[in-house]
Amino acid sequence: MKPIRLSERSIPLLFLTVTVIAYGLLLPLTGFYWDDLPFAWIAEFLGPYEFIPAFAQVRPFLGPIFFVTTSLIPPVPLYWQIFALIIRFLAGLSAWFALNQIWPRHKRQTLIASLLFLVFPGYSQHWVAFTHINQEWIPFIFYLLSFGFSARALRNSYVVARRSGATTKQSPNDPEIASGGGSTQSVSPLSPRNDMIFALLLLIAGVFPTEYFVSIEPMRFLFIWVIVSEQVNGFGQRFVESWKRWTPYLLIWLANGAWLAYFYTVGGYASYDVEVVREPLTFIRILSTIGEAIWKAGVYIWAQVLVLASKTPTAPTTLATLGLIVVAFILLAFYLRKLNLTETETRTFAIFAIVIGLAGILLGRIPSFAAGLPLTLQSSYDRFMVSMMLGSSLFATGLIELSFRSIRIKTYAFAFLIALGIGQQFFNANIFRRDWAKQQEIYWQLAWRSPAMKPNTALLTDQLPIDYETDLSFTAPLNWMYAPSYERSNLPYALFYTEKRLGRASLPSLAPDTDISLAIRRVSFQGSTSQVLVIHMPRNGCLRVLDPARGDEATYGRQSRFLVEAIPLSDLSNIIVASDQTAQLPFLSEPDHTWCYYFAKAELARQQGDWNQAIDLVDQARALGYEPEDPFEWLTYIEAQALTGNIEAAEKLSDRAFEQDNGIRKGLCEVWKRVQAVGPAGSGAEARLDRILSDFQCAR
Fold first, then answer.
1. In 10 A of CB 280, how many CB atoms?
2. Cβ pair 296, 122 in contact under 8 A
3. Residues 52-59: contacts with CB within 8 Å, 24+ apart?
4. In which residue ranges of the chain is CATH 1.25.40 found?
5. 133: closest CA among 47, 40, 1?
6. pLDDT tens-place string over residues 568-612
7. Which end of the chain is more exposed for a tag (fewer CB within 10 A), N or C?
8. Which residues partner with 533 through β-bridges?
9. Could you tell me which CATH class the domain 593-700 is placed in?
10. What pTM value is reported for the model?
C-alpha cells in the first residue's frame, strides 16, 4: 500500500482547520467585550463615518479602518466573531507568506513558525473582536505582507541582476532555489520595483494607524540581512548592502516617528503618554524588563495552559482543554510527518531565527514599556503581546531546531507546542464565553427590574463582578437598551464605577446636586447626583436596585464603602414601572426565566407596594425549584409575608436566612422594624415582633 503523503497545497487547509479549532469551537457563545461595546454603539447610532472624527485626536489613521469595516459589517456580535476568525486565518497566511519569502528553502521551519504565530498563547484578546481587528490585526496583516513583499523584492532583484549579467550558472545555494530537489523558484511576474512599492505602501498602512508596531521595523533589517548574507561575503559588506536595501523602509519608519513626535509634543495626539521618560532608566530596570519580556513571551507562554489547568484539574473546562490538546497533538503529529516538504540544513536558520526572535520580542515590548504599561498575562494587558508574537514564534522554532537533531523528535515537539497553543486559546474562549454570559445576566436582570428609566439617569455602583468590561463599556449598551431611538445629542444614560471615578472630574463627589459626566468619544452624558439609581450585583446573586428608604445603607453596610456611601443618592422614582415594553439589546434573546427573573419582578412589585404580587412571584419560582444563592434576596419575600399577616412563615425564613449568612442580621432588622412600624393586625403580633427584634439583637 502506497504511504500517505500530503503536498504543500494542503497547507492553507491546515491553517483554516487550526484557526477554527483554536478560535471557533465556542464562537456562537461569545459576544462583545471591553471597547467593542462603545464602538458597536457608535456604529449603530452615529454611523461608520463617525469613526473618522472620533479618532482624529487619538489615532487619526485608524479611523478609516473602522469606517471601512463598520460599513461592511453590522454591529452584531456573531458577525464580528466570524470576521475575527477570518482575520486570524489571513494573519496566519500572511506570516507564512512573509517567512517563506525570507527563507524559501526552509519551508518546514517557516510553516512551523507561522502555525505557532497563528495560535500564539500569550495573546488572549482574540475575542475582543470589534476592537482588536481594527486597532491591531488589520494593520498587523499589512505589516506582515510588507515584510513578505520586501523580501520578495530583494530576492527577485538578485535574480534579475544575475540574469541580466548572464555570467554565472545558478548553484544550489542561490536564493531562487526554493526546494532541495534543485527546482528553480520562478521569478514573480511582478518586477522587484513593483514588489518594493507594495512593501512600502503596506508598511505605511501597517505602521501609521497604531503605535502597536512602531518599534518592530528593525526586524526588517535583520530579515534583509538573512537574504543579503546569501549573496555577499564579509560583515562590513553585508552591513552596507543591508542598510542600503533597508533605507526606503527606514525613511518611512522615521517619518512615522516624526509624525508621532509632533503629535505627542506639539499636536493634538491624545493616546498613551510616554511614561518611561518620567522615571530614571536604571540598568537594573532595563535588565529586569528584558528578562521579563524574554521569559514571558519567549518561554513561559508556551506552557502557560498547563499551569492554568493545574489550578483546577477536575473542572470541565480544564478536562475539555486537556482533551483538545491531546487530540490536536495526535492530528498535528500525523499531518507534519506526512507532509512532503524537503528538509535542508537547519543550523544557520535556527541561529538566525533565535537572534531575530529575541530581537522581535524586545522590540515588540518597547511601545507598552514606553507607555508605562505592564506585561500582565491573561488580562487585557496581554494585548501588547501582539507586537511580540512574530519574534516569539521564530525564537521557539529556532530553539527547537537547534536543540534536536532527530526530525521525528522535532516534529513531535512542534506538534506539542502548537497543540498547547490551541488548548490555551480554547481555554481563553471559555473565559470569554463566561464573561458574555455574565454580561447578558446583567443586561436582562436590569431590564426586568427597571423596564424603562427617566432620561438623564445615572447608574452608580462600586464595581460589577466581571473582568473585561468597565463602566464606560456598560454605558454603551445601557443607552442601546433604554434609548433605542437615540439621535445625536447628550447621552441619556450612563453607568459610573464609584470605586474608579469618585474624586475625579467625571464624578467629583457624592454630594447631592453634583454635576457628573462621562463621554463616549464625541458624545457625553451630562447629569447630576440628584438623579441616580444605585445598583448592586454580587458575584453569586441577582442584580438589585438599592433603596435608602428601606434601609439598604445598613443592610449592605458590609459592602465596599464606594457602594454604601452612594446608596443615599438612589431614587427609585427614576424607574418607569408602567412601561409599554422592556428594555433590551436587539442582538440578545431573552433567556429562560429562573430565580433572578422572579426576584427582579418581585422587587418591582414591592416598589409598587403590591406585596401579594411579590409573594406570588417568589412562590412561582420556588414551585419551579428555584431559590436564591444569596440569602439577602429573601428579604423582600420575608417583608411581604409579614406585611400580609403570615408572620410565622416570615420568621422561619428569617431564621433560615440568618443561618446561611449571619451578615444579613442588619437587613433583617430593617425589615422587621418596618413591619413593626406598619403594625400588622393579629393577636399578639406586637409582642411577637418585639421578640423577633430582640432575637436578632436589633436594638443594638
1. 7
2. yes
3. 53/522, 54/521, 54/522, 56/268, 57/268, 57/269, 57/270, 58/269, 58/270, 58/271, 59/135, 59/209, 59/210, 59/211, 59/271
4. 593-700
5. 40
6. 999 999 999 887 777 889 899 999 999 999 999 999 999 999 999
7. N
8. 459
9. mainly alpha
10. 0.91
Contacts 24+ apart (CB under 8 A), 344-348: 344/105, 344/106, 344/180, 346/106, 346/109, 346/401, 347/401, 347/402
Longest dimension (CA), the chain: 117
Mean pLDDT over 79-108 rounds to: 97
In whole angstroms, give the CA distance from residue 542 to residue 527: 27
Q: What are 374-414's pLDDT values in tens digits?
A: 898 988 889 999 999 999 999 999 999 999 989 999 999 99
Using DSSP's 3-state secondary structure scheme, residue 502 falls into: strand
Residue 407 cell numbers, joined: 526530525
Q: How many CB atoms lie within 10 A of CB 615?
A: 20
**What is the distance between the alpha carbons of residues 54 and 63, in angstroms, rounded to a whole number?**
7
Distance (Å, rounded) from C-alpha 34 to C-alpha 470? 7
Instruction: State the cell numbers at 567.
Output: 446608596
Mean pLDDT within 406-434: 96
37: Cβ contacts below 8 Å, ≥ 6 apart: 469, 473, 474, 476, 477
pLDDT for the residue 165: 66
Instruction: Report whether 61 contacts 209 (CB < 8 A).
Output: yes
Q: How many other CB atoms sit within 10 Å of the CB of residue 291?
A: 10
Burial label for 316, CB within 10 Å (0-12, 13-18, 19+), is exposed
Cβ(218)–Cβ(254) below 8 Å: no
Strands 532-536 and 523-528: unpaired
Residue 570, Ramachandran bin (φ over 0: left; ψ between -120 and 50: alpha; else beta): beta
CA distance 645 to 604: 21
Closest CA to 239 of 254, 255, 221: 221
What percent of the chain shows pLDDT beyond 70? 93
